[in-house]
Amino acid sequence: MSIDLEQIRSANPIEKIVEEKFRLRRSRNRFVGVEHDSLVVTPQNGLYYWNSRGESGDVFDFAGRHLLGYDNRWNNHDPLMFFEAVYYLANHAGIEIDKNEDYRRSFDWAERQLVQRLHGALLTTVAALDYATRTRGWDAATVKAARLGFMPSDKRTLTAELNLSEKWRSVVQRFPPGMLVYIHLEKGQLTYLSGRSIEGKQHYNPSREILGERQPYYGHLYTSDADEVVLVEGQADAVTFGQWDMPAVAIAGMHVSGELLTSLQKHRRVFVALDNTAEALAKSRDVAQRLGKCAVLPRFPDGVKDANDWLVQGANAETVTSVLNKSQTWLDGECHRVAMLTGLERKDAVCNLTQHATEMDEIELSEFRAALASWA
User: Fold this and answer.
1) Residue 31 pLDDT > 80, yes or no?
2) 311 Cβ contact partners less than 8 Å away, ≥ 6 residues apart
3) Is the N or C terminus of the chain more exposed, i.e. has fewer CB atoms within 10 Å?
């Protein structure tokens, strides 16, 4: 049987493996160490980071460092050392593996190494790291947790000695250099790459022919069972809300698909916080209407373009939480808007609102009736 790193990783959820060594407590959409509060585990992207120790990685890295006892001697590029962690986790999950199979020939290993190399390129490129930490305002913990990367001009070091699939080789080859790379991970597995130039405002998504349809970007704190999430426009905004300890999803310039709407509606509350422009505000109202009762509409302060701009201007988690707490529900916002209309335009808008009455709970229905009465 060949070695399937993804099967082994999936069978060993990182929060479960970390908890075998250190007690964890759930903190909203991530796990934090009980005795070591700078130890943070983010299940969505399958990573952990430990600020006070300056270490981070996935489930294989944690097993190598802390379950096999390599500690700061751990080197995930060392074939023998890494295989030891693979074998340990395979046994832990009851998965039989062929010791004669070279896991370095697997696509999973190559993709894992590509992610690490892209992230390493960001950390070692002064201009790129300066863009992430100064221009964008992200701290070192956020840069690590989001696994942000950078596409260098010389791409040979990214792919050397890696058995990458033709798909991912084409993505790297065609990806414009000089770009911050947003690495889309799901449970530690690479699913997509998107980019933004560190100079100018150029955005990039690989062609559909190579990598398929464009994908939303899920912030590193996002989980499908999160109680509250924020829907934002750009990837930078999703990373920013992660720094404020809020899970976020970025539509990344796309229309909100029915599939994404369905997944978002599973959350109790969705803050629709697209950019603070007239066009984006109209788009936010439309998305909120499609989401229904779980949608709420926060409003950025005057002079703030988007979440990342807000961070750069000095907003902290406490300020952001206060603003989100004052958000209007979609129903409140629509009632206020409709109240400003007159004549047939108001009549049509009221009819449209009435169609949503069957989805309202008793309190919402009571408020809606009160609003209708006030317009009479």
Assistant:
1) yes
2) 136, 137, 138, 240, 243, 244
3) C
Cβ atoms within 10 Å, residue 202: 12
* pTM of the predicted structure, to 2 decimals: 0.82
**Each residue's pLDDT tens digit, 345-354:** 877 777 777 7
- Give the chain's domains with CATH numbers: 1-101 (3.90.580.10), 106-215 (3.90.980.10), 221-326 (3.40.1360.10), 333-375 (no CATH)
At which residue do the structure tokens 């990039």 appear? Answer: 204
Please give the Cα distance from 220 to 241 (Å, whole number).
Answer: 10
pLDDT at residue 36 is higher than 80: yes
